[in-house]
Design goal:
nine-stranded mixed sheet, D-Maltodextrin-Binding Protein, domain 2, about 350 residues, alpha/beta, about 40% helix, Arc Repressor Mutant, subunit A, 3 domains
Length: about 350
Amino acid sequence: MSGPAGAWKLQILEPNGLPPPHDAPLMRLLRPPHSKSLRAFCLAARHRSFKTAADELFLTPSAVSHQMKELEDALGVRLFERKTRALELTAAGHALLEEVGPLLEAIDRSLARIARRNRRSVLRLLLPPFFASELFVPRIAGFCEAHPHIDIQVDTHDPRPSAHPPGVDVSVLLSDTVPQGLKTWRLFSLSLVAACAREHAAAAARLGSNVFREMSLIVHRSRPSAWSSWAREVGLEEPEPRSVIELDTMLAVVRAAERGAGIALVPEALCGARFQSGLLVRLFPVELATLDTYFLAARTKDTERPEVAAFSRWMLDHCARPSIIGQSEPACTGSGQLDIQTTVTDFAPARRASAAER
């Protein structure tokens, strides 16, 4: 895609899949597609999903699908193969993504440079969605107040980002190993604790080890064996719950527990405000340590930029483990709270009996 201002050129592949000769004429579009349509196309093409593209653009899937149909009509080529449960790129779609994607990224970089020249900086962040909603967003006003000249763009499309992508200045990565080739800072390790809604906490304490037979277990789809690991930490047999509710996001897991759907394993460091407010009650003084750690990451050369350095310092001050306020403690007796140690003691006879039987 090149040429004078207002004239767009689209290179159409030959039937053999190769580009035409250099001296072949290029089609010129009198009414070039809007840049919004091209950005929507790049997202849909990379994710192979209109729905995912729509989520990132805050549109409906049907709106993105309509934009893609208009783009195909304008170009006179099919860009997608629409299947029942899949979306695939045609040869023309692949060619357009390879040519337009880098150009849009170059435009974004140019705009960012111009903004910096005018004493405004744009900081592009990649954050896990639950980290963003529970830890970052509640504190973001403080950063903006301290750094009013820095604009922030936050991407939360990846529930478990483990790589620092091009076009992003700073990432929070969730990984079981230290990310390589980057400047990284360790924020905190991910540990899970059992929790439920306050109205069910007293019943859970009374039931003791029978709680799993009376209440549903809420399971995060990406951690199907977490409850089995937790039971081993406590010294119990694997739970045999009344029912299992499997959800695909941590926000859904936490919300289900808050609404009384059952017992969930939730990230202790990210749910402090929910424990403090009483929306959730921690049931047992047992933390299930995982292999995962949250890392703050940036390219080494980017850490020299003032806005990246300022944000990195702020994150370490406000979002690293020692600074996270509102950490949950197992509820204690008094003021309507629970004696959770009694609950754990209730498990002891079952463990001793099992040992005696062996």
